[in-house]
TrEMBL record:
It comes from Actinacidiphila yanglinensis. PANTHER family: ANHYDRO-N-ACETYLMURAMIC ACID KINASE. Pathway: Amino-sugar metabolism; 1,6-anhydro-N-acetylmuramate degradation; Cell wall biogenesis; peptidoglycan recycling. It holds the Pfam family AnmK. This is Anhydro-N-acetylmuramic acid kinase. It catalyses: 1,6-anhydro-N-acetyl-beta-muramate + ATP + H2O = N-acetyl-D-muramate 6-phosphate + ADP + H(+). Residues 375-397 are annotated as: Disordered. Catalyzes the specific phosphorylation of 1,6-anhydro-N-acetylmuramic acid (anhMurNAc) with the simultaneous cleavage of the 1,6-anhydro ring, generating MurNAc-6-P. Is required for the utilization of anhMurNAc either imported from the medium or derived from its own cell wall murein, and thus plays a role in cell wall recycling. One of its GO terms (biological process) is amino sugar metabolic process. ATP binds at residues 9-16. The keyword Nucleotide-binding applies. HAMAP family: AnhMurNAc_kinase. GO terms for molecular function: ATP binding; kinase activity; phosphotransferase activity, alcohol group as acceptor.
Length: 397
């Protein structure tokens, strides 16, 4: 089955599209990577999406307009990807949409909202679309995140580094928010949770400091030119979220555009470079502190943050002696992982397989995720398939 996965993360820098061919036999799920690409949001659309984030108050007309604009852009990207990577033929599209609000109170997820009307994708491709991926898990008592734990648990379920016995490893995704999935031996439960900010505070600061000219400190140049301010770092680390037990989830509703400014109040002035260095260190410290209790043999990183050398250097220093590797070294390109995750979740939902690993998101009972928009052909779902025990990544043929 050929599935297109569409994903735009909390950084809101663009739409990631991946096309994969899936097979399932004797408990082994295979994913052949057919191709992936990132489509940048038009500048006006990105600014309008960022304008939805707290503390902004936005009318329903703008929410409706962006639901359509994201849906139309997703439809265009899906059509282009099917033609380029699948020879013009695919079976299913799985679209995450753009998260604009993740509602968490008292440590429990209450709701989540992603924009990107799937009807536009179906109309453009003629294919059924799986969307609204997170809501069912929240309704079942889960956090709705991190859904990367589903892919991670299957993907890292094999041998340990070097082909030895299974070792406890963590998959680390460095998007706007950082999340980890801890995977051990076959009898060990999977633990997954958001650790805190990865890029979102850095991106917001870079956007503000450059007057909107830069959406991120992608090469780490600003951070490398500065010095970590211990007083500001200590204040940032007082955030209560870091002490909450897993599973837990967070987003830009907590780590808002004005989050850092409010925590700088009363401190001596902080230079631009020192601010970026301190926020980089904050991401590294909170990830490393979250990983440390699990006695990891390896951390496998993916997401946009792997392109920031200052962040990767800080992470390696904080995680030492645990090695930090990039997911490319394990067969899955770091910048494409979440789009392939969406394709995987769409495949699982199509075959009636729960899209979360037991316990990973906090839901008592794993559920089949998403809702399906029928395509042009009659909607005929296959018989439910058994849950796979492993995922093998295959290179393009």
């Amino acid at each position: 089955m050929i599935v297109v996965g569409l994903m735009s993360g909390t950084s809101m820098d663009g739409l990631d599209v991946a096309v994969g061919e899936f097979g399932l036999a004797e408990g082994v799920l295979t994913l052949r990577l057919l191709g992936a690409e990132e489509y940048a949001w038009p500048p006006e659309t990105r600014e309008r999406l960022l304008g939805l984030l707290p503390p902004a108050e936005v009318g329903l007309a703008e929410v409706c307009a962006l639901d359509t604009l994201v849906g139309q852009a997703s439809a265009d990207a899906a059509v282009r990807a099917i033609e380029r990577f699948a020879g013009g033929r695919a079976d299913l599209v799985a679209s995450h949409g753009q998260t604009v609000y993740h509602w968490v109170t008292d440590g429990r997820a209450r709701g989540t909202l992603q924009l990107g009307q799937p009807a536009w994708i179906t109309e453009a491709t003629g294919l059924p679309v799986v969307s609204d991926i997170r809501a069912r898990d929240i309704a079942a008592g889960g956090q709705g995140a991190p859904l990367a734990s589903t892919l991670d648990a299957l993907w890292l379920a094999g041998d340990g580094p070097g082909g030895g016995a299974p070792a406890r490893r963590a998959a680390l995704n460095l998007g706007g928010i950082a999340n980890v999935t801890v995977v051990g031996g076959p009898a060990e439960p999977v633990t997954a949770f958001d650790t805190g900010p990865a890029n979102c505070l850095l991106d917001a600061a870079a956007h503000r400091l450059t007057g909107g000219r830069a959406g991120s400190d992608i090469d780490g140049r600003m951070a490398r030119a500065g010095t970590v301010r211990g007083d500001l770092l200590a204040r940032l680390l007082e955030e209560p979220y870091y002490l909450l037990p897993a599973p837990k989830s967070t987003g830009r509703e907590l780590f808002r555009a004005d989050y850092v400014e409010s925590r700088c109040a009363g401190l001596p002035a902080v230079t631009d470079q020192d601010l970026m260095a301190t926020l980089t260190e904050l991401s590294a410290v909170t990830v490393a502190d979250a990983c440390r209790p699990y006695g990891l043999a390896e951390v496998v990183a993916s997401g946009g943050g792997v392109r920031n050398p200052a962040l990767m250097e800080a992470l390696r220093a904080r995680l030492h002696p645990v090695p930090l590797v990039i997911s490319d070294d394990r067969g899955l390109p770091a910048g494409e992982k979440e789009a392939y995750l969406m394709a995987l979740l769409g495949f699982l939902s199509w075959y009636g397989i729960p899209g979360v690993v037991p316990g990973a998101t906090g839901s008592a009972t794993p559920r089949v995720l998403g809702r399906i928009t029928p395509g042009d052909a009659p909607l005929r779902l296959p018989e439910p398939a058994p849950r796979p025990r492993r995922l093998d990544i295959l290179p393009p043929a």
